[in-house]
Design brief:
It comes from Spodoptera exigua. Pfam families: MADF_DNA_bdg. InterPro entries: MADF-dom. It is elongated and about 50 Å long. The N and C termini lie far apart (40 Å). It is built from five helices and no strands. With 113 residues, it is an all-alpha fold. The longest helix has 24 residues. 50% of the residues lie in helices and 0% in strands. The chain has one domain.
Length: 113
């Protein structure tokens, strides 16, 4: 899957809040979620299982990049760093719909175990 198609997949997926927002009542309706994936599949010439696997991979990469950014803000001693890591991954900004709900919890240096 090329980058343009991957970005389109993320954008379409993000438009269906029921697929990713656990605070949404419909998020827990597995039948509806499968129907929404069927809708997404209509936009591509790929089978649903391929699209789901690709999205899972993209989301995993995003979580890793986001975690790397968050953990680079503070050094191991707890001091704030001058320059933190900033992701250059092509799909990073496409996942902004997840940031509005802070699904990835940033740990402050004092909360580290």
């Amino acid at each position: 899957m090329d980058k343009k198609t991957a970005l389109r997949l993320i954008t379409i997926y993000g438009s269906y809040r029921e697929l990713w927002d656990s605070r949404c009542k419909e998020y827990y309706n597995k039948k509806l979620r499968e129907e929404l994936w069927d809708e997404i599949t209509k936009n591509f010439n790929l089978p649903k299982h391929i699209l789901k696997a690709k999205y899972t991979n993209l989301a995993s990469t995003y979580r890793g990049e986001r975690s790397r950014e968050k953990s680079s803000v503070y050094s191991k001693s707890g001091a704030k760093r001058q320059s933190a890591y900033k992701s250059k991954w092509f799909a990073y900004d496409a996942f902004n719909f997840l940031n509005e709900h802070s699904y990835i919890v940033a740990r402050s240096p004092t909360s580290a175990a």
